[in-house]
Structures are given as C-alpha cells and as structure tokens.
Design goal:
5 helices; Metallo-beta-lactamase, Chain A; globular; 24% helix; 6-stranded mixed beta sheet; single chain; 228 residues; alpha/beta
Length: 228
C-alpha cells in the first residue's frame, strides 16, 4: 500500500472514531439500564442505584414499573421544579408526580425533544408480556438519535430503527443474551451499540465483552461505557 493510500485509510479510521466519540460523549451510563444524556435538556432514563450530587433532570423516561427501572428513591434524587416524567400507564399508576403517559407506537414532544415509544417485551419468557405495554424509547437530542430498548427480547418492531446509538440489554435471564443482543443490533442497524442491563442483579462485564466481540466486522461500533 502506498503512502497516499495509507493516509486515506488512517484519515477514515480517525474520522470514524471521532464520529463515535461525538455520538457518545454526552451519554453517561449510571449502571444497569440507567443513563443520563446531557443536553440541554438533561434526560435520564430508568434512574436506579444513583450516586449523589447528579445534575437535576429536565426529563425522566421510565420504560416500565419494575423496581430496577422505576425506583422512586432514585427518581426523587433527580427531580426538580419543572421535571417532566414520561412513561407508560403502569408507571403513572405508581408515581406521585404527574406523568406524561405514552404507549407503544405513540410519540410525544417534551421540552423540544421528540420521544417515540417502541414496544419492549419478552418472546421466550414471561417477565415482560407484550400485553403490559412496556416500552423502549427513541429520542433525538443534540442531533443524535438514541434508542433505549428497555427490557426486551429480539422483536420485529426493532427492525430498521437505525438510530445513531442503540442501548441494548445483554445479560440474559430477564432480557436478551449477548448473542441475542448482537442479533438485535444487526436488525436495528445503529451506528453505535452500547450494552446495558449488566453489573446489577444479573449480567457481568463478560456479557458486554461478548456482545462487542460478536459485532466485530459488522460495521456497528460497540462502545462499552464506564459506569459513573
């Protein structure tokens, strides 16, 4: 390979790496399925086992009412005047604050952020029945589109979502295994995939590493975020 060709390849790799950093630098993994996306506005998803001193939320998205996703003590840590909570009806039934309810297939705009609910359910286990109306979320913030899959198996509604960043459970037991999550990623076709749902309750760092290994050569970049 001549020097010009090498330079072109290196430039392409550097550009791709920079794009991945740009898409994930404002995304903070807080453990398990919990994330914060820095805005403005500041968005939390499924806050659980949070530390102290975190920024207040402008929007909190809650995928369903299980204790490790709807944690009232953790929700209280990030609530402030004007915080808007968004979730399905089962969440609204358990939260004292007003909740903007959303069902699979519906879209809301909150504080300028377009939020779409995507179904999240099990196909080969019974922890998250489709009939419950649990959700994942697709939202665009700062020019980046994120898909938080919620607690789910591989489902047809994922196909072709093509977000910039997909946040996918990898632990198995209640959700997809790492192998199934890699299958889901290939169906979803994100630019970047970030593993979640491990390190608390079920799942280990090994699940995240396996997920990354399975997607090598797929054209999907995997970013394993450090827990904050």
């Amino acid at each position: 390979m001549n020097r010009l060709a090498i330079a072109v390849v290196l430039a392409a790799v550097t550009s791709a790496g920079g794009e991945v950093r740009d898409m994930t630098e404002k995304l903070h993994w807080l453990g398990h399925d919990a994330f914060r996306i820095d805005g403005p506005p500041t968005v939390y998803i499924d806050p659980y086992q949070l530390g102290e001193g975190l920024p207040s939320a402008d929007i909190v998205l809650i995928t369903h009412d299980h204790f490790d996703h709807l944690s009232l003590p953790d929700l209280a840590k990030v609530m402030a005047k004007g915080t808007v909570v968004v979730g399905p009806k089962e969440v609204a039934a358990k939260v004292k604050q007003p909740v903007r309810t959303i069902a699979p297939g519906e879209t809301l705009t909150v504080k300028g952020v377009k939020i779409r609910a995507v179904p999240a359910y099990n196909t080969n286990k019974s922890f998250h029945p489709k009939s419950d109306g649990k959700v994942g979320f697709v939202l665009t913030l700062g020019g980046v589109t994120y898909y938080h899959a919620g607690d789910t198996d591989v489902i047809p509604e994922m196909a072709g979502l093509a977000p910039d960043v997909a946040l996918l459970p990898v632990s198995g037991t209640y959700v997809m295994t790492a192998d199934e999550a890699a299958e889901a990623a290939r169906s979803i076709r994100p630019k970047v995939a970030v593993p979640m749902h491990y390190g608390a309750i079920v799942g280990t760092d090994g699940d995240a590493r396996r997920f990354a290994k399975l997607l090598e050569g797929s054209g999907i970049e995997v970013v394993v975020k450090r827990k904050e």
